[in-house]
Amino acid sequence: MLGAAVALTGCSQGGGGNASSTTRASTAPATTVSASTTPAASSNKTPLKIGLLASKTGALESYGKQTERGFQLGIEYATKGSKEIAGRPIEIIVEDTETKPDVAVQKATKLLEKDKVDLLVGSSSSGDTLAVLPLAEEYKKVMIVEPAVADSITGANWNKYIFRTARNSSQDAVAGAAAIAKKDVKIATFAPDSSFGRDGIAAFKTAALKLGATIVAEQYADPKATDYTANIQKVVSAKPDYLFVVWAGANSPWKQFQDMKVQQQGIKISTGAPDIPALKTMNDLIGMEGFSVYYHTLPQNDINKWLVDEHKKRFNNEVPDLFTPGGMSAALAAVESLKKTNGDSSADKLIPAMEGMSFDTPKGKMTFRKEDHQALQPLYAVRLEKKDGFDYPVPVLIREMTADETTPPIQNK
């Protein structure tokens, strides 16, 4: 899900690295993955249990599957194949939030009470994540947030147990505004009526207004709707120079923008480059300049090369998509911090180990800011271009925006 960006559609592929998985028998089935196949796994060392909350079904199903794949690969990469830390085998228990906050709470409670997990990771939806944050504080367990982006997660609703490897809406907003906002430019915005959408637009507005732009219309659509005619008509009536779009989920508005000839009326559309299935609906936006959280050819580093190569080997030559590297980054952060504590998962040891911690990821170096535990990280200014052999416009790098450039404001209490 993108904060200041993005129309995204679901994908049909599932996964979870190369590890084996079994389904637990319960009223709320989980996917339990034994992440150690080495002899150490049969020792008396207590497993390190990580509970991964993800949308394996629902509107954000593709995000959850990408995150899970990346997380499994990240654990393997970070432990150099041993899948253990300080002699303790890693056990990953995956729970489907169904992209429903009440279900997310139910599944997180199960992970904390029944499974006794040492660490929480997730989730795909900002709404699901916001519902679970109080449980991390109640049970005194560190939670790594990935890929949810609402500012309030590390802002108004934050607690000290929360760390986020995902970028937040304000980071997206800085990148999105830099692409189009300047003096005398009129901008309309379009987003789902949700914490994700409203946080994303609020952050974008702040960044765009600072650059001298004027916001002439804001449209918030029902995230479950499939007809956005009334919203789009209001955007067109405002006569903006640009329409900046924040979106997430399979029911994206791109086709209706095309059907209602928004661009033919002199309105340029700008957004973040989404996942590959959604890019396939955006051929009319070739030439658009915006930003990207990730596309597999953008970062140039050894970890990303490993991720791309291994992902293609294991998943029928598929490249990692938008949220795969985020799942990997969460795993790298978890392993790095637990190595620092010699496998001690207690919050009073993990929190000081993670605050200010820098770690390498497929996107480059990330650093957990001490004040709010938000990971500072690079983003990418891109242009969508037509390339031979692709049935979608490819995000091509204009420049990498450094972590310093995209640093968001501190918003927690």
UniProtKB/TrEMBL annotation:
Residues 47-387 form the Leucine-binding protein domain. Keywords: Signal. It comes from the Bacteria. Residues 13-44 are annotated as: Disordered. SUPFAM superfamilies: Periplasmic binding protein-like I. It holds the Pfam family Peripla_BP_6. InterPro entries: BCAA_transport, Leu-bd, Peripla_BP_I. Residues 19-43 have a biased composition (Low complexity). Belongs to the leucine-binding protein family. This is Substrate-binding domain-containing protein. It comes from Paenibacillus sedimenti.
